[in-house]
Amino acid sequence: MPPAAYDERLSVPLRWWALATMFLASVLVAFLVATPLWVALGTTLLLVALVLGVFVGYGSARVTVADGWLRAGRARIETGHLGRCEPLDAAAMRRLAGRDADARAYLLLRPYLRGGVRVDIADPADPAPYWLLSTRRPARLAAALDPAHQATPGGYQAQDSAGRRTDAEHREGDS
Asked: What are the phi and psi torsion angles at 95 (to 5°)?
C-alpha cells in the first residue's frame, strides 16, 4: 500500500493533559482531607479513567488523504468528488464555523486547532456543500488534495456549488 499523501491525528494538546493532571491532583487532595483513603483513591481513579477516555476518544480523530479518498473522522469521500480546497487561518475558520456557516456542511472541528481547510464538494448528489476540517497544517492538507482534483476526469465544475448559499447569505437575501 502506498503511503498516505497526508495523515494527521487531531490529538488533544499537551496543555489539556497538564490542566487535567492539576485538576485530578486537586481532587485527590480535597478528597484525602474530607474522606477515607479508599474513597479518595477510588474517586480519583474513576476520574482519571474518565478523563483518559474522553481525551483519547476526542483526540483520536484523523484526517487522511490516501488511495483516492479523503477521510476525516468517521466520514470519507472519494477525492474525485472534491472541488476547490482552501486553507484557512484562525479568523476565517471562526467565521466559517460561526457566522457564515452552512448548516448542511460536514464539520470536523477541534477548539484547540486554530487553522483548517474548507473543501468544496463537487458531487451534486451530496447534500453537504463543503467540509470544514480543523488541522495543524492547512497548507499541507490543501496541497495533498489539490493534485487529486486536477487529475479527476472532467475536473471541478464551479457551478456545482455556486448555487449554494451560506446561512448568512440566506438571511441577507431574505431581508
From this structure: -65, -45
**C-alpha cell read off for 144:** 495533498
Identify residue 27 by its one-letter amino acid code.
Answer: V
Q: Where are the domains of the chain?
A: 11-58, 63-160
Contact in structure between 160 and 123 (CB atoms under 8 Å): yes
pLDDT digits (tens, 9 = 90+) for 113-172: 999 999 999 988 889 999 999 999 999 999 998 864 444 443 333 333 334 444 444 445
- Write down the residue that cell numbers 493533559 correspond to: 17
Q: What is the pLDDT of residue 2?
A: 64
Instruction: Give all strands (DSSP E) within the chain, no chain letters.
Output: 6-9, 62-66, 69-72, 75-78, 82-88, 106-108, 116-121, 130-134
